Protein backbone atom coordinates (compact mmCIF):
# COMPACT_ATOMS: atom_id res chain seq x y z
CA UNK A 1 0.00 0.00 0.00
CA UNK A 2 1.34 3.39 -0.98
CA UNK A 3 1.06 5.76 1.97
CA UNK A 4 1.79 8.71 -0.31
CA UNK A 5 -1.70 8.41 -1.77
CA UNK A 6 -3.90 11.36 -0.95
CA UNK A 7 -7.56 11.20 -0.20
CA UNK A 8 -10.10 13.41 -1.91
CA UNK A 9 -12.49 14.36 0.86
CA UNK A 10 -15.00 15.97 -1.41
CA UNK A 11 -18.75 15.85 -1.59
CA UNK A 12 -20.28 12.97 -3.52
CA UNK A 13 -20.53 13.16 -7.27
CA UNK A 14 -23.34 15.39 -8.43
CA UNK A 15 -25.43 14.83 -11.50
CA UNK A 16 -24.77 16.83 -14.63
CA UNK A 17 -27.04 17.85 -17.48
CA UNK A 18 -30.81 18.02 -17.00
CA UNK A 19 -30.68 16.46 -13.57
CA UNK A 20 -28.36 19.17 -12.29
CA UNK A 21 -30.46 22.04 -13.67
CA UNK A 22 -33.78 21.08 -12.08
CA UNK A 23 -35.21 23.41 -9.48
CA UNK A 24 -36.93 20.40 -7.90
CA UNK A 25 -33.86 18.15 -8.16
CA UNK A 26 -32.78 16.57 -4.90
CA UNK A 27 -29.03 16.93 -5.45
CA UNK A 28 -27.26 20.00 -4.11
CA UNK A 29 -24.83 22.09 -6.13
CA UNK A 30 -22.17 24.42 -4.70
CA UNK A 31 -24.55 27.31 -4.06
CA UNK A 32 -27.11 25.00 -2.45
CA UNK A 33 -24.49 23.54 -0.14
CA UNK A 34 -23.46 26.98 1.06
CA UNK A 35 -27.04 28.02 1.82
CA UNK A 36 -27.90 24.66 3.36
CA UNK A 37 -24.99 25.03 5.76
CA UNK A 38 -26.54 28.22 7.10
CA UNK A 39 -30.02 26.70 7.34
CA UNK A 40 -29.05 23.39 8.96
CA UNK A 41 -30.29 22.79 12.53
CA UNK A 42 -27.55 22.38 15.08
CA UNK A 43 -29.15 19.86 17.46
CA UNK A 44 -31.85 17.18 17.56
CA UNK A 45 -34.38 19.46 19.25
CA UNK A 46 -34.12 21.92 16.37
CA UNK A 47 -34.33 19.21 13.69
CA UNK A 48 -37.81 19.07 12.12
CA UNK A 49 -39.46 15.79 11.11
CA UNK A 50 -38.17 12.20 11.21
CA UNK A 51 -39.67 11.73 14.66
CA UNK A 52 -38.85 8.03 15.03
CA UNK A 53 -35.27 8.38 13.85
CA UNK A 54 -34.71 11.40 16.10
CA UNK A 55 -36.09 9.62 19.17
CA UNK A 56 -34.05 6.48 18.55
CA UNK A 57 -30.88 8.41 17.77
CA UNK A 58 -31.35 10.56 20.86
CA UNK A 59 -31.38 7.43 23.03
CA UNK A 60 -28.23 6.08 21.35
CA UNK A 61 -26.31 9.33 21.85
CA UNK A 62 -27.45 9.98 25.43
CA UNK A 63 -26.54 6.42 26.44
CA UNK A 64 -23.08 6.78 24.87
CA UNK A 65 -22.48 10.09 26.67
CA UNK A 66 -23.60 8.57 29.98
CA UNK A 67 -21.10 5.74 29.57
CA UNK A 68 -18.37 8.11 28.46
CA UNK A 69 -17.99 5.98 25.34
CA UNK A 70 -17.90 6.58 21.62
CA UNK A 71 -21.32 6.33 19.96
CA UNK A 72 -22.12 3.22 17.92
CA UNK A 73 -21.71 3.35 14.16
CA UNK A 74 -24.80 4.80 12.45
CA UNK A 75 -26.27 4.03 9.04
CA UNK A 76 -28.77 6.51 7.57
CA UNK A 77 -30.69 5.59 4.43
CA UNK A 78 -33.23 7.48 2.36
CA UNK A 79 -33.67 9.71 -0.66
CA UNK A 80 -31.39 12.73 -1.22
CA UNK A 81 -32.29 15.95 0.55
CA UNK A 82 -33.98 14.45 3.63
CA UNK A 83 -31.30 15.41 6.18
CA UNK A 84 -28.73 12.62 6.35
CA UNK A 85 -25.76 14.99 6.24
CA UNK A 86 -27.44 17.30 8.74
CA UNK A 87 -27.99 14.42 11.18
CA UNK A 88 -24.34 13.38 10.89
CA UNK A 89 -23.28 16.89 11.90
CA UNK A 90 -25.77 16.84 14.77
CA UNK A 91 -24.32 13.50 15.95
CA UNK A 92 -20.86 15.08 16.08
CA UNK A 93 -22.20 18.15 17.89
CA UNK A 94 -24.14 16.05 20.43
CA UNK A 95 -21.00 14.00 21.14
CA UNK A 96 -18.80 17.15 21.27
CA UNK A 97 -16.57 15.57 18.64
CA UNK A 98 -15.03 16.81 15.39
CA UNK A 99 -16.41 15.48 12.11
CA UNK A 100 -14.60 14.33 8.98
CA UNK A 101 -16.68 14.33 5.79
CA UNK A 102 -15.94 12.26 2.69
CA UNK A 103 -17.84 10.11 0.21
CA UNK A 104 -17.87 6.64 -1.26
CA UNK A 105 -16.91 7.74 -4.80
CA UNK A 106 -13.86 9.53 -3.37
CA UNK A 107 -12.54 6.28 -1.87
CA UNK A 108 -11.43 4.18 -4.81
CA UNK A 109 -8.48 2.42 -3.16
CA UNK A 110 -7.86 0.86 0.23
CA UNK A 111 -5.02 3.35 0.65
CA UNK A 112 -7.49 6.23 0.44
CA UNK A 113 -9.47 4.84 3.37
CA UNK A 114 -6.36 3.91 5.35
CA UNK A 115 -5.06 7.47 5.09
CA UNK A 116 -8.34 8.81 6.49
CA UNK A 117 -8.67 6.25 9.27
CA UNK A 118 -5.08 6.65 10.44
CA UNK A 119 -5.54 10.39 10.93
CA UNK A 120 -8.76 10.19 12.98
CA UNK A 121 -8.79 11.47 16.55
CA UNK A 122 -10.37 9.53 19.39
CA UNK A 123 -14.14 9.88 19.33
CA UNK A 124 -14.14 11.63 15.94
CA UNK A 125 -17.14 11.19 13.64
CA UNK A 126 -16.39 10.01 10.10
CA UNK A 127 -19.27 10.79 7.74
CA UNK A 128 -19.17 8.63 4.62
CA UNK A 129 -21.80 9.77 2.12
CA UNK A 130 -22.99 7.41 -0.64
CA UNK A 131 -21.27 4.59 1.21
CA UNK A 132 -22.64 2.01 -1.23
CA UNK A 133 -20.38 3.44 -3.95
CA UNK A 134 -17.14 2.70 -2.10
CA UNK A 135 -14.70 0.32 -3.79
CA UNK A 136 -14.67 -3.32 -2.68
CA UNK A 137 -11.04 -3.32 -1.32
CA UNK A 138 -11.80 -0.26 0.82
CA UNK A 139 -15.07 -1.83 1.95
CA UNK A 140 -13.27 -4.95 3.17
CA UNK A 141 -10.77 -2.82 5.07
CA UNK A 142 -13.65 -0.97 6.69
CA UNK A 143 -15.05 -4.19 8.20
CA UNK A 144 -12.08 -4.62 10.54
CA UNK A 145 -11.81 -0.90 11.26
CA UNK A 146 -15.44 -0.72 12.40
CA UNK A 147 -15.37 -3.88 14.50
CA UNK A 148 -11.85 -4.05 15.93
CA UNK A 149 -10.60 -0.48 15.42
CA UNK A 150 -7.58 -1.61 13.49
CA UNK A 151 -6.49 -2.10 9.89
CA UNK A 152 -3.86 -4.36 8.38
CA UNK A 153 -1.36 -2.48 6.25
CA UNK A 154 0.20 -4.61 3.52
CA UNK A 155 3.89 -3.84 3.01
CA UNK A 156 5.62 -5.25 -0.06
CA UNK A 157 4.29 -7.44 -2.84
CA UNK A 158 4.11 -11.09 -3.71
CA UNK A 159 5.46 -13.81 -1.38
CA UNK A 160 7.41 -11.25 0.63
CA UNK A 161 4.37 -9.13 1.49
CA UNK A 162 3.80 -8.55 5.20
CA UNK A 163 0.64 -7.44 7.01
CA UNK A 164 1.31 -4.88 9.74
CA UNK A 165 -1.64 -4.22 12.09
CA UNK A 166 -2.34 -0.55 12.76
CA UNK A 167 -4.38 0.27 15.83
CA UNK A 168 -7.05 2.97 15.44
CA UNK A 169 -8.60 5.19 18.11
CA UNK A 170 -12.31 4.53 18.77
CA UNK A 171 -14.40 6.51 16.28
CA UNK A 172 -17.99 6.69 15.06
CA UNK A 173 -18.73 5.97 11.42
CA UNK A 174 -21.89 7.57 10.05
CA UNK A 175 -22.73 6.07 6.68
CA UNK A 176 -25.34 7.57 4.38
CA UNK A 177 -26.88 5.85 1.39
CA UNK A 178 -29.70 6.43 -1.04
CA UNK A 179 -29.69 2.74 -2.00
CA UNK A 180 -29.46 0.61 1.13
CA UNK A 181 -30.10 -2.56 -0.86
CA UNK A 182 -26.68 -2.23 -2.51
CA UNK A 183 -24.86 -2.50 0.82
CA UNK A 184 -23.51 -6.02 1.46
CA UNK A 185 -24.91 -7.69 4.62
CA UNK A 186 -21.48 -7.85 6.36
CA UNK A 187 -21.26 -4.06 6.17
CA UNK A 188 -24.86 -3.42 7.25
CA UNK A 189 -24.46 -5.75 10.22
CA UNK A 190 -21.58 -3.72 11.61
CA UNK A 191 -23.70 -0.64 12.20
CA UNK A 192 -25.08 -0.42 15.71
CA UNK A 193 -27.99 1.79 14.65
CA UNK A 194 -29.80 1.98 11.32
CA UNK A 195 -32.28 4.75 10.57
CA UNK A 196 -34.44 5.14 7.48
CA UNK A 197 -35.35 8.70 6.50
CA UNK A 198 -38.93 9.10 5.26
CA UNK A 199 -40.33 11.77 2.95
CA UNK A 200 -41.80 14.72 4.84
CA UNK A 201 -45.49 15.42 5.28
CA UNK A 202 -46.72 18.84 4.03
CA UNK A 203 -47.23 20.08 7.61
CA UNK A 204 -43.60 19.27 8.45
CA UNK A 205 -42.39 21.03 5.32
CA UNK A 206 -44.40 24.09 6.28
CA UNK A 207 -42.44 24.22 9.54
CA UNK A 208 -39.21 23.87 7.55
CA UNK A 209 -40.22 26.74 5.25
CA UNK A 210 -41.18 29.02 8.17
CA UNK A 211 -37.90 28.29 9.96
CA UNK A 212 -35.82 28.89 6.81
CA UNK A 213 -37.74 32.10 6.07
CA UNK A 214 -36.84 33.42 9.53
CA UNK A 215 -33.17 32.60 8.99
CA UNK A 216 -33.22 34.20 5.54
CA UNK A 217 -35.08 37.24 6.90
CA UNK A 218 -37.98 36.66 4.52
CA UNK A 219 -41.55 37.61 5.42
CA UNK A 220 -43.97 34.81 4.57
CA UNK A 221 -47.52 34.06 5.64
CA UNK A 222 -49.06 30.69 6.49
CA UNK A 223 -50.71 30.17 3.12
CA UNK A 224 -47.52 31.10 1.26
CA UNK A 225 -45.54 28.54 3.26
CA UNK A 226 -48.22 25.91 2.58
CA UNK A 227 -48.05 26.61 -1.16
CA UNK A 228 -44.28 26.11 -1.24
CA UNK A 229 -44.46 23.02 0.99
CA UNK A 230 -47.08 21.42 -1.25
CA UNK A 231 -44.77 21.65 -4.27
CA UNK A 232 -41.61 20.44 -2.52
CA UNK A 233 -41.96 16.70 -3.23
CA UNK A 234 -41.66 15.81 0.45
CA UNK A 235 -38.04 17.01 0.58
CA UNK A 236 -36.69 19.83 2.80
CA UNK A 237 -33.83 20.60 0.41
CA UNK A 238 -36.30 21.26 -2.39
CA UNK A 239 -38.50 23.32 -0.05
CA UNK A 240 -35.56 25.57 0.82
CA UNK A 241 -34.62 25.92 -2.84
CA UNK A 242 -38.16 26.86 -3.86
CA UNK A 243 -38.34 29.33 -0.98
CA UNK A 244 -35.24 31.12 -2.25
CA UNK A 245 -36.61 31.37 -5.78
CA UNK A 246 -39.98 32.64 -4.54
CA UNK A 247 -38.12 35.15 -2.36
CA UNK A 248 -36.35 36.44 -5.49
CA UNK A 249 -39.66 36.86 -7.29
CA UNK A 250 -41.27 38.58 -4.31
CA UNK A 251 -38.38 41.04 -4.03
CA UNK A 252 -38.27 41.90 -7.74
CA UNK A 253 -41.93 41.85 -8.78
CA UNK A 254 -43.85 42.32 -5.52
CA UNK A 255 -43.44 43.95 -2.12
CA UNK A 256 -41.16 41.24 -0.72
CA UNK A 257 -43.88 39.46 1.25
CA UNK A 258 -44.59 35.87 0.20
CA UNK A 259 -48.29 35.06 0.04
CA UNK A 260 -50.04 32.10 -1.59
CA UNK A 261 -50.67 34.12 -4.75
CA UNK A 262 -47.06 35.30 -4.95
CA UNK A 263 -45.73 31.77 -4.33
CA UNK A 264 -48.01 30.23 -6.96
CA UNK A 265 -47.16 32.88 -9.55
CA UNK A 266 -43.43 32.62 -8.87
CA UNK A 267 -43.36 28.84 -9.12
CA UNK A 268 -45.37 29.01 -12.35
CA UNK A 269 -42.56 31.15 -13.73
CA UNK A 270 -40.09 28.43 -12.73
CA UNK A 271 -42.36 25.73 -14.25
CA UNK A 272 -43.11 23.92 -11.01
CA UNK A 273 -46.78 23.00 -10.94
CA UNK A 274 -49.16 22.56 -8.01
CA UNK A 275 -48.11 18.95 -7.50
CA UNK A 276 -44.38 19.62 -7.71
CA UNK A 277 -43.85 18.41 -11.30
CA UNK A 278 -41.38 20.36 -13.41
CA UNK A 279 -40.81 20.57 -17.16
CA UNK A 280 -39.15 17.17 -17.47
CA UNK A 281 -41.81 15.40 -15.42
CA UNK A 282 -44.61 16.89 -17.49
CA UNK A 283 -42.79 16.18 -20.76
CA UNK A 284 -42.59 12.50 -19.82
CA UNK A 285 -46.28 12.39 -18.88
CA UNK A 286 -47.41 14.31 -21.97
CA UNK A 287 -45.43 12.02 -24.28
CA UNK A 288 -46.82 8.95 -22.56
CA UNK A 289 -50.41 10.20 -22.77
CA UNK A 290 -50.56 12.14 -26.02
CA UNK A 291 -48.17 10.14 -28.19
CA UNK A 292 -48.68 6.64 -26.86
CA UNK A 293 -52.22 6.70 -25.51
CA UNK A 294 -51.10 6.05 -21.93
CA UNK A 295 -48.88 3.06 -22.76
CA UNK A 296 -47.53 0.56 -22.24
CA UNK A 297 -44.43 1.97 -23.90
CA UNK A 298 -40.79 0.99 -23.55
CA UNK A 299 -38.39 3.21 -21.63
CA UNK A 300 -36.09 3.77 -24.62
CA UNK A 301 -39.00 4.83 -26.81
CA UNK A 302 -40.26 7.20 -24.12
CA UNK A 303 -36.79 8.72 -23.68
CA UNK A 304 -36.46 9.38 -27.42
CA UNK A 305 -39.91 10.99 -27.45
CA UNK A 306 -38.89 13.57 -24.81
CA UNK A 307 -35.38 14.09 -26.20
CA UNK A 308 -33.58 12.85 -23.10
CA UNK A 309 -31.22 10.01 -22.27
CA UNK A 310 -32.78 6.77 -21.08
CA UNK A 311 -30.96 7.08 -17.73
CA UNK A 312 -32.28 10.62 -17.23
CA UNK A 313 -35.89 9.51 -17.62
CA UNK A 314 -35.42 6.42 -15.47
CA UNK A 315 -33.40 7.92 -12.63
CA UNK A 316 -34.48 11.59 -12.60
CA UNK A 317 -38.14 11.77 -13.64
CA UNK A 318 -39.65 8.36 -12.99
CA UNK A 319 -39.09 7.92 -9.22
CA UNK A 320 -41.28 10.90 -8.32
CA UNK A 321 -43.91 10.09 -10.95
CA UNK A 322 -44.18 6.53 -9.62
CA UNK A 323 -44.30 7.71 -6.01
CA UNK A 324 -47.09 10.15 -6.88
CA UNK A 325 -49.09 7.38 -8.56
CA UNK A 326 -48.93 9.05 -11.98
CA UNK A 327 -46.91 6.37 -13.73
CA UNK A 328 -46.49 2.63 -13.30
CA UNK A 329 -43.61 0.40 -14.33
CA UNK A 330 -44.78 -2.90 -15.77
CA UNK A 331 -42.97 -5.82 -17.46
CA UNK A 332 -44.28 -4.55 -20.81
CA UNK A 333 -43.36 -0.92 -20.34
CA UNK A 334 -44.44 2.32 -18.70
CA UNK A 335 -48.15 2.90 -18.19
CA UNK A 336 -49.99 6.08 -17.20
CA UNK A 337 -52.46 5.87 -14.35
CA UNK A 338 -55.91 7.53 -14.23
CA UNK A 339 -54.35 10.17 -11.94
CA UNK A 340 -51.95 11.16 -14.73
CA UNK A 341 -54.81 11.79 -17.17
CA UNK A 342 -56.64 13.81 -14.53
CA UNK A 343 -53.54 15.85 -13.60
CA UNK A 344 -53.00 16.98 -17.20
CA UNK A 345 -56.72 17.52 -17.74
CA UNK A 346 -56.97 14.87 -20.47
CA UNK A 347 -59.57 12.20 -21.08
CA UNK A 348 -58.20 8.66 -21.46
CA UNK A 349 -59.05 6.95 -24.75
CA UNK A 350 -61.44 4.01 -24.76
CA UNK A 351 -58.96 1.89 -26.69
CA UNK A 352 -57.75 -1.43 -25.37
CA UNK A 353 -55.05 -1.11 -22.77
CA UNK A 354 -53.43 -2.95 -19.85
CA UNK A 355 -56.77 -3.40 -18.10
CA UNK A 356 -58.09 -5.53 -20.98
CA UNK A 357 -55.04 -7.70 -21.07
CA UNK A 358 -54.47 -7.00 -24.77
CA UNK A 359 -50.94 -6.37 -26.01
CA UNK A 360 -49.66 -2.79 -25.97
CA UNK A 361 -48.62 -1.09 -29.18
CA UNK A 362 -45.37 0.46 -28.01
CA UNK A 363 -43.45 -2.34 -26.25
CA UNK A 364 -40.09 -1.01 -27.36
Structure overview:
This protein has 3 domains: 18-196, P-loop containing nucleotide triphosphate hydrolases (Rossmann fold, 3-Layer(aba) Sandwich); 202-269, Orthogonal Bundle (Helicase, Ruva Protein, domain 3), CATH 1.10.8; 279-356, Arc Repressor Mutant, subunit A (Orthogonal Bundle), CATH 1.10.10. The protein has a 5-stranded parallel β-sheet with strand order 2-3-6-1-7, covered by helices on one side. A two-stranded antiparallel sheet has the order 4-5. The protein is an alpha/beta fold and 364 residues long. Helices cover 44% and strands 13% of the residues. Helix 13 crosses helix 14 (310-323). Residues 1-16 and 351-364 have low confidence and may be disordered. The protein is built from 15 helices and 11 strands. The chain is globular.
Amino acid sequence: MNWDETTDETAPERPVGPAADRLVGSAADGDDQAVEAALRPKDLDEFIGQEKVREQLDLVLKAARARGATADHVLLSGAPGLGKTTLSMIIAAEMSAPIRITSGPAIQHAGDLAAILSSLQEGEVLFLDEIHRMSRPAEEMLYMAMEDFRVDVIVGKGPGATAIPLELPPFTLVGATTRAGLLPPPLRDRFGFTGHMEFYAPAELERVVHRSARLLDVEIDTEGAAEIAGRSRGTPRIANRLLRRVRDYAQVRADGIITREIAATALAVYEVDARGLDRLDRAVLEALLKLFGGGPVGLSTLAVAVGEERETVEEVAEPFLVREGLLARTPRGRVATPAAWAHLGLVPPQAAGPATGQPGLFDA
